[in-house]
Design brief:
Largest sheet: 7 strands, antiparallel
Radius of gyration: 24 Å
Helix content: 25-40%
Number of strands: 18
Length: 537
Amino acid sequence: MKPSNTSLLSFLFIFLCSYSGVALAGTYNEFIQCLSSYSQNFTSISTLIYTPNNSSYQPILLSSAQNLRPYSSPLSDPLAIITPLYESQIQEIVQCSKLHGFEIRVRSGGHDYEGLSYISESPFVIVDLRNLRSITINTENNTLWVQAGATLGELYYSIAEKSRTLAFPAGVCPTVGVGGHFSGGGFGMISRKYGLAIDNIIDARVVDVNGRILNRESMGEDLFWALRGGGGASFGVILAWKINLVYVPQNVTVFNVTRTLEQNVTKLVHRWQYIADKINENLVIRLFLRSVNSSQNGDKTIEVSFTAMFIGGADTLLRIMQESFSELGLLREDCIEMSWIESILYMAQFPRGSPLDVLLNRNSQGRIFFKGKSDYVNEPISEKGLIGIWERLYEEVGSSELQFTPYGGRMNEISESELPFPHRSGNIYMIHYVVDWGEEGVEARRHMSWIRRLYNYMALYVSKSPRAAYLNYRDLDLGVNNKGNTSYAKASIWGTKYFKNNFNRLVHVKTKVDPANFFRNEQSIPSLLSGWKKQGD
């Protein structure tokens, strides 16, 4: 028998009195009463609300908290997790949260590097979109609507079900949610040919601060511009994206070859920098750099994996490599021809022959504590500079990795201001730094100190004025907003790193669509009208 509205409200009130005090309990009780006022949906939504007293609360909270480091911080847990089934329920949550002073954090896949989709300093509720993940493909015009709660794996699987010659340029991790991934940019192994995910979005649905559901036509071009690369959580709740699919041949070609210091890897990485963004746009050669113990004598060495995907056959790939990067010594036996969807499994490191339905698993294979950072490189790093990286990687054998992701191709053809994502022409590659560990405490402090020292060392070799960063590798070290409302000047410290000159336009869009700054977090776009002046604090 389902509980009545009255019994559910009484339970929540009693629980919250013991959990957070009478004042907060009363406010939260009013929030629930607000939801109940939408009588046609309340019975449904009441079964989708999880509080700390519910046995399912902790498993649901952690189920898509991909990084345990933010979760272990002293910031508060959510007062409730709501997993709506219908878009109308999100409208109600926004209206009631605004009315009763609760922040909301929207979680799609839970991959925010700093956990901003599931932690906060202020009383808040999580809107978890796991139940909103429908995917509808129109094969007549090769477009697709995907709800924000779907993962990349679910998206790719759905595309492959319809066609083996259609694809989409987005990330390689199948458990990443499309809601956040697309709104920050979305780079993938065919992005040098087809651009980022945001470059292929043609419509969106969003719940705004007034609880209205808007599409591209009704929201206007300014907001539609901001959602594609400016971080959707600053402007509303993304419900769905409409995307253009792209063509790929029946087979693509992949390879993954590894070289070490004993195989002249310093010179190979140095040479790669001169061809990475200029080589044929159908080819992405991504580098994964790490320190390992040598299999020969147990001493430390540097190992670099050259991981690539080519939109075409192996023979053509070998010819291109011979012309542009013969130093790598790529052989025919290194190359594997496969379908595009099989390459998704390959890049996600699933064993060969794995069934496609592994892409439907929303849970990561293992959650860890980690810290990530990013940089952009405009000029090749000298061999001396690379050796300095090696020396620092030796300090973190087995727990750290750098990824060099090449740009160029289609990325160079789109202007910096076309969308909020500004990292276009002039960038050879992006660096992703990551270090992970097993538990908090002294070990965590040591690893955090290491990655920050490496980041400081790299300042000489990366972009400047500003030192640019990628929003999808969110980094609170770059700066955070003041609690509540903050200044333009304060927010621009981190904002110009992610968005360069586009930050100013994003602020003006925010001011227009959310003037009171309801949709906010530690690195959300600020409003000029939320109680402060542009000139300062």
